[in-house]
Each structure stands twice: as C-alpha cells, then as structure tokens.
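Q: Can someone sanity-check these two? First one:
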Amino acid sequence: MGDWPIGDISKITTAYSNPATSLSFTIDCAQDNTKGAWAEVISATPFDVSGIILSFVRPYATGEMDCLIDIGTGANPNEVAIISDLLYTHSTAATPAYSYFVPISIPKGTRISARGQCSDTAYNRNVMASILLISGTFQSQQPCMIVDTYGATAADSGGTSVDPGGSANTKGSYSQLSASIARATKGIAIGIGNQGNTGRTTAMALLDIAVGGAGSENVVISDLFVHLSALEGTPPFTYPFIPISIPAGSRIAARAQCSITDATDRLFDVVLYCFG
C-alpha cells in the first residue's frame, strides 16, 4: 500500500471563482478531439501545494460528450502538463460531476493553467472546473511529484474500452491500460467514461484492476462498483485516489463483469492515473 499518512490541513483555497456569476473556472474544450489553448487558472499559487481536488461539470448543456482535460504549470506560452487527460463524460439526460483528488506537490508562486479537448461538435463544449489547492495534508517519505496517464484515447477524447463479455455476471477479458508503467506508484485514480452512449440500458458492473503479463494477471483492486445508467452515464464516474504500490515496468489491465449482455450497453471506458 502507499505511504500516505493523513496530517492536518493547514490551508485550502479555490484557485478561481467568479462571485458575480456564482461560477467556477470555465475550460473551453476544443472540438474534433484536439487539445485547445491553455487558459490561466491562477497566476501564482499562494502557498506550497501538496494536493489538488478537481471537479468538472457541464451545466446548461445537452448532448453526449467525452472530454480529456490537462492541468499545466509554467508561464505562457511554455506551459507543461503535470496532469494529463483527466476523463470527463457528459450524459444526454443528466449533468454529472466528476471529482479527482491528486496528491501532487506544486511550489508556491507557480502559475496553473488548464486546457481540454472533446468529442462534441454540435453543442456547448464549455466545462466548468472547481480547482481546490490544498497545503499540509500529507506527510510522505517522498512527495508525489508526477502523474502518469494510461488508457486515454485522444482520437475520441475517451478512454480504453472494457468489455465485460457476453456472459452476464461473469468477468470478461482483460483490456490493457499499460504494457509497462514508467515509474513505481504511490497510488492510482480511475476515470470511467460513457463512450458517448445516448441510449444506454441501465445495468450494474464490477471493475477489476490487475497487474501482470497477459494470461497471468494478478487482481490488485477488485469489484469496484460501476452503475451504467440510462439517465446519468456511468456513476460514480471516478475513483479519486487509491493508495497502492505498483512497481515500475508493471503491465496494468482492467476487466469487468456486468448484469447485462447487450453488445453496446455493457461497454464503458477506463483511464488510469498513476501517482509517482
């Protein structure tokens, strides 16, 4: 397991808000599955940051849309993504909110920006983002300095498809998220996507995360609940942070089981975020 003892929270601030309109930061996710321009969230962090809570929602809009969102640091035009391809899925019938907790160190005085891409070309593509900066939450032997993303698919602004298979309530085949992770992990987070399914049949699914070569996978996190909803998409949408140690070079894969066997409606996307 990861080495993340909880300490006292000394400071929390919202990186951006607009009291005049009661709105948070707006990310204009570029169309055609291509990342748009960086937009500044905060010019300089007011303290040393040890974690970020990110929440995404798409209000006042209809239509299915998958998005991949980057959080970056650095002066314009030299921003560098420190968190890449955070998955957000909007459902036709609901306005889901995705939340990610990212335990990452960012020095005081750092400029933070955001950018995104989306699969939608017909509707409002703006995504509202609440970005909380946290200081003093963790004491770790080695602070988390980097986030690696596995399974994101730029071509459709989604993730890697997981197919529970044609037998109800039985685990299907593995979908590879990474053939070899770049560095050892202190923990992972998971984003779950709807694949732009506008007519999904409501169903229940259980998701496994496994480590090991093809045919010899070892399940390290089992039976994460996923609600495949005709109204909401795929709540709980994210598993924000799970402290677990996985060695560098490991292959990581996902599999699932589902209560239905429909060839389309049983499918969902997965993106994995590894904290090192």
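And here is the second, same format, sequence then tokens:
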Amino acid sequence: MPGTQPKDEALDNALLAALPVNEYEKIRTALEPVSLAQGEALWEVEELRQYLYFPTTAMIALLHETDGGASTGIGIVGRDGVVGLEVFMEEAKAAERAVVQQEGVAYRMRSKDVKSEFGECGDFQEILLCYTQVMLAQVTQTAICNRLHSVEQQLCRWLLTNCHDQKTNTFSMTHDQISTFLGVRRETVSLAAAELQNRSIIEYSRGKITILDQEALEAAACQCYGEVKERFDQLMSKYESLHAA
C-alpha cells in the first residue's frame, strides 16, 4: 500500500516494544542489528561486556562454567528479554558465557550508550530493572529444576521456552547442544527425547525438533516454565499499567 511505513523489526523484542514511543525513538539510533550464528560466543569468562543485546529472532543461552570445566545452562533469552545485564549492573555476574543457541538477529547497544540512556530515560531504566528481576527468577528456578526434576521434565521446559520465544513448533537443535545446556550426558537427553517421541509429543529427526502436542508437553513438564513465564507477565503488566499513558 502506498505510504505504508516499513516495519521496525527491533520492535519484535518485547522489552523495546513496551517502551513509550518518545523513549524508544531516543534510543533507536543507538541500536545496531547484528546477525548471530549458532554457537557464536557473545562473551567468554571474565571478558568485559561491551554490548547489551535485544534478541528478535536469535536465542541465547547463558552458561555457568563448573570447576571441572563443564558448562550448564542457567537461563535462555529470546525475544522477551535482553542479554548483558552486567552492562548496567556492574557488580552482578549473571553468566560466565553467553552462547547463541539459535541463529538469528539481535539489536545491540554499546555499553556507553546504555549507561547514558539509563540515566536519562526513566522508562528504559525501569523496564531493564524489571527484566533483571525476571532473569533472577529464571536463574533461581533453573537451579531448583536441575536439582529436583527429571531430565525429561527439564527437556520439556526447555522445549516450551524455545517454542514460545521462536513462535514456532519446529526448530533445529542437536542433542549435544541440549545436553550442554541441561548439564547432562548426551545419551540421557537422547533417552528422554525418545520417550517423548514414543508418546507422540514431539518428533525428532536429523537435528530438527517438532512439537506435535503442546498440551501434552506442558503436562509432562514441571511447573518451572509456567512460574517464570507468570513472573514475566506480572512484571510487564505492572510496567504497562504504570506507563500506559
């Protein structure tokens, strides 16, 4: 249609989309789109965090390194979140590594720009602090899940998170990648995935996973996925009600 404005794809990120128009326009020039490849590390242990990343189609795994050198996931960030909280929470260390789990696009913002706008834009500051609470809840819930729930339940939680953040029931992921995030052996993941496939909940072939029955998947999962999602919805609802005007 003549005169139609092209879509601003940065607004596919829920946090950016929730900002009031005047504040979003103020930070928009500082947002740079970047294509992220699967397996790419955004940072390694002890590296300075130079950017804040707002994923739109990419998904990023936050990993903790054990004393033995193994990795385990403490959080997943997609279109509902932001990666790099340490940019404005300098004493915090949410993760030792951030690795791209699903290739795609994110919009990044230099740390100097984040700090500048963080002090000048009250809504930008508040929404990032709100999300920090969500991430802390996710990290805590993941620790509880890893300790108390079966690998099958953890796998179901992981699949539901991917389904929600990618807006699709089909995505590519190997058992090696899943085992790294869950912190368990590949064979253990294979057995759990095979059980879900035998029950016609998922279909897995050549690194591609398709969710066939989401209701059954939710029933097979533990409550951790729902609790983190509910926490996000509560905080975002609070923010939107405060700034709807």
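A (reply): Looked at the second one. The beta strands are 32-36, 41-43, 51-55, 59-65, 71-77, 97-102, 104-110, 170-172, 202-205, 208-211. The longest strand covers residues 59-65.
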